[in-house]
Amino acid sequence: MKNTDKKRVLREMLFARRFEERCYEAYVERNIGGFLHLYPGEEACAFGVLEAAQPGHDYVITSYRDHVHAIKAGSDPRHIMAELFARETGVSKGRGGSMHIFDVAHRFMGGYALVGGPFPLAAGIAKGIQMQGGNEICICFLGDAANNQGTFHESLNMAALWNLPVLYVCENNLYGIGTRIDRSTAVLDQYQRVSAYNIPSAQEDGQDFDLVHKAATKAVEHVRSGKGPYFLELMTYRYRGHSMSDSNAYRAKKEERMWSGRDPVIMLRDRLIDAGVLTLDEYTDMDTAVLDEIEDEVIRFATESPEPKVADVEKYVLAENDPWVRGGVQ
Amino acid sequence: MAEIMYWEAIMRAHDEEMANDPMVICMGEDIGVVGGTYKATSGLYDKYGEARVIDTPISENGYTGLGIGASFLGVRPIIEIMSVNFAWLAMDQIFNTAAKVRYMSGGQLTAPVVIRSPGGTAHQLGSQHSARMEKVFMGVAGLRVVTPSSPRQAYGLLKSAVRCNDPVFINEHELMYNMKGEVPGEEYFHPLEGSEIAREGRDVTLFGYNISVHWCLQAAEQLSKHHGIEAEVIDLYALSPLDRAGIRNSVSKTHRAVIVEEAEPAVGVGAEVMAIINEECFFELDAAPLRVSALNVPIPYNHALEKAALPNPGDVVAAVRGIFGV
Q: Alpha carbon of B131 to those of B56, B63, B199, B301: distances in Å?
């Protein structure tokens, strides 16, 4: 990967970081309601994997921690923020919220709030790809705690059995809300668990963009070439609590400091500075421009957008005017 | 018009829809090589192959979710859940995904899946193979629920359900797969909403669905023969949404209503139809509506106990006689 591309990715990752931090503020300001699950600390996972794939061509599906995956899949951040602000201009027209970002035009197939729910949906999307005969793949991002759901085992079994083009990415941030992985899970290395289904897998440092990108390139190539599913485990850490309602009191400060010392944005920044393609001043300017863009474009768009009409509350429950409801009579 | 069995009608609908659209697939436990526990998919595996007639592992939530995911890309899966009791395991994907995805995506995604499953109580299958779950499905927004009482409906409802853009749950019945009935020779699509008048009458309306339509018809014959009471029988083949106009029209004519359901009474079809009668035509009533339901027990294995737990045509006759004091 060229350094100019890495510089672009650095800006994208920084944008994602600042976007999420601004969501935190907007939540405190009460412009965002409900549950809010933020991504800072884990950016190299989404960016490393999707940089190795073809966003907009490949299908992406994930959990409730979904803003950044949608942005990298090609969704307009203004419409994501508008969704968080519950506006009609939101990607899901204000009906979904933070946990249900959908942008089907960019093949971002949604964020889902039941832990492990997307495992079979991703396999199904892969079945659809297989039936259509295209070369797309489906990429499913989920956390480590989802792997203790039955859907993990049921879906991996079917994906392997039917050779489905699906890449499962496990963002292992070590905690299922407040329960550390060694207190919930008998096998700590998640990539080993899929060997039960003869699915090839790898484990990688999820803080290092270059390493994630390299591992993901191999994984994507495997799936796209028709060899069936692949499972990539990325070791990472979320800086904040599970959601805004999580006091985050269960983690040792020492552990948090250790991980923040391996920040994915800063690691990529410093690597580019060391390579002589970026200066600290340039980075500071980049940051200022990102913050301005978020305030002037994203927040402004969300704030100025209208809310859905209350009269439309029953819209989108069922298909409108579907002739087959009347037995095909128009 | 030929007489065929309920399972043959379902099989014919599968066959026609799979021939019509290469994106129609069917999936479920033992539906391929074996042809389905109730033969409803027999012959399809040989005709359409294993990529479209899919024998699934015993993973109800997993394969239901897989079918839903495939439907996002234009695949039209007909998912058979071998027994409705096993559908409890797939509730997560049916309710959390299929029923909600259109709404929570602001109309971007739909899950046009058909989920077929035999509900009802057969003969001595015990508590965990005798569930009646229609009331569970009909209580959730975003899902259509239909339940055929005849081969004609079984054929036509499946045909329309496959083509409809909403998720549709089809509640079949283990005891009805061998029932014979007339099905049009030409292609026929049954409406997914509404109700049918299975028997015209003027004195009381008996509301039934699926197998209980037949109990109502038997009761109506006895009431006519022995008591001179002419019962109207309304077939509620669509449980969600229920046909409010059809319920109102019939009760406005007969002024009396008995709802006959195979399930336990609480939070069920009877309760819902009664609520609709109250909302739509309370002042048309000459007597308080009644429901004939199962007892509120898990279904027992012992034959006599099983029989005692379930309603029958005699219970329907008794309820109507009570209304008329005869």
A: 22, 21, 28, 13
Over the stretch B144-167, which tens digit does the pLDDT of each residue have? 999 999 999 999 999 999 999 999
Claim to verify: residue B158 and residue B261 sit in the same structural domain = no
CATH classification of the domain holding B257: 3.40.50.920
B164 shares its domain with B269: no
Question: Does residue B39 form part of some domain?
Answer: yes
The answer as to whether B191 is a domain residue is no
B203: in domain: yes
Which chain A residues contact residue B61 at CB under 8 A? Answer: 120, 150-151, 154
- Put simply, the chain A residues between 37 and 76 with a CB less than 8 A from any chain B CB are 61
For the stretch A45-61, pLDDT in tens is: 999 999 999 999 999 99
Q: Determine the structural domain holding residue A292 and report its residue range.
A: 3-326
> Using CB atoms within 10 A of its CB, is residue B185 exposed (0-12), middle (13-18) or buried (19+)?
exposed
Q: What is the length of chain B?
A: 326
CB pairs below 8 Å between A and B: how many? 180
Check: CB of residue A212 under 8 Å from CB of residue A48: yes
pLDDT for B104-142, tens place per residue?
999 999 999 999 999 999 999 999 999 999 999 999 999
DSSP A308: P
Strand A166-172 and strand A138-143: the pairing is parallel
How far apart, in whole angstroms, are the C-alpha atoms of residue A247 and residue A91? Answer: 29
Which of B8, B29, B60, B196 is labelled catalytic? B60
- Whether B129 is catalytic: yes
Structural domain harbouring B82:
2-183
Q: Do B174 and B216 share a structural domain?
A: no
Q: Does A165 touch chain B (CB under 8 A)?
A: no
Q: Which residues of B touch A155 (CB under 8 A)?
A: 62, 65-66
